[in-house]
Amino acid sequence: MSLSDEELGRYVRHIVLPQVGGVGQRRLKSASIAVIGAGGIGSAVIPALAGAGVGRLTIIDSDEVELANLHRQPLFRESDAGQPKADLAAKFVRRLNRFVEVSPKRERIDEDNGQPLLAGHDVVIDGSDNFATRLAVSDACVALGLPVVSAAAIQFQGQVGLFRSKPCYRCFVGDAFDSDDCDTCSELGVLGALTATIGSFAALLAINLVAGVGGDQSGQLHLFDGEALRWRTIRIPPDPACRACGGI
Questions:
Q1: 37, 108 contact by CB (below 8 A)
Q2: pTM higher than 0.90 for the full model?
Q3: Are 168 and 187 within 8 A, CB to CB?
Q4: Structure confidence by residue, pLDDT tens digits, 193-235
Q5: Judging by beta carbons within 10 Å of its beta carbon (0-12, 13-18, 19+), is residue 244 exposed, middle or buried?
Q6: The sheet that has 101-105: what strands, in order across it?
Q7: What is the CATH number of the domain that holds 195?
Q8: Which listed residue, 33, 99, 196, 225, has the most CB atoms within 10 A of its CB?
């Protein structure tokens, strides 16, 4: 896939990077990425991917904007309250970069619709705010053989990890969190700047993966303490008994 003269000028700061170059930028243009959640994490992920020139974005979110979102979701304005996040996020992408094809989906992923919604993408970035959705996304990605960048933030703690088929996200958290009644940031709070930090890191992981920058980051979980301002990384081993990827 070639780049037009306008695209060459637009992405020149990428292209002059030897780690990216024209080859990496063409890979970004050819890529199709699904973003789960247009909330706090998605508000950092979506502009980063659109600005980077990812060719096709699917934004999946069933929620509407609330005033309590605005301290961490700069995609939206006060006047957007009550409107669908997915549609508004897609409008933002179109204003930012006309070369990006964007498709909003006003749906919530579950075990029934996960595979149909995510099939045909190259990478999935999950910034949803509950375990039930994250596990449904992970299970669908395992079944489809898709890499998923899973990102979460609550209070002052954030985590980001790239999971391929094995180990998967379920290897990390197990089967205890499939219900909808787990803690969310609406109950425990979250620092607005933290979601931007975690979302930007998730976008960087995905961009590096697509453009072929750096080594394989899969199976590692990057943990950020927003109070102490420290990162640490742990490796997630495959769980032989995992009901999603254990038989692979």
A1: no
A2: yes
A3: no
A4: 999 999 999 999 999 999 999 989 999 999 999 999 999 999 9
A5: buried
A6: 101-105, 56-60, 32-36, 123-126, 148-154, 157-163, 220-225, 230-235
A7: 3.40.50.720
A8: 33
Question: Residue 246: inside a domain, yes or no?
Answer: no
| 148: in domain | yes
Sign of CA dihedral 178, 63, 43, 102: positive
Spatial neighbors of 245 by CB under 8 A, at least 6 apart, are: 142, 165, 166, 167, 168, 170, 171, 238, 239
- Both tokens of 21, joined, read 């170059």
Three-state DSSP class for residue 139? helix
What pLDDT, on a 0 to 100 scale, did the predictor assign at position 67? 96
CA quadruple 35, 37, 40, 44: dihedral, nearest 10: 10
Report the candidate in 3, 30, 61 with the shortest Cα–Cα distance to residue 210. Answer: 30
Q: Quick one: which of 173, 95, 88, 97 has its CA closest to 134? A: 173
Cβ neighbours around 223 below 10 Å, total: 14
What is the model's pLDDT at position 69? 95
State how far the Cα of 81 lies from the Cα of 64, in Å rounded to an integer.
Answer: 7
Domain count, the chain: 1
Nearest C-alpha neighbor of 208 from the set 129, 143, 125, 140: 125
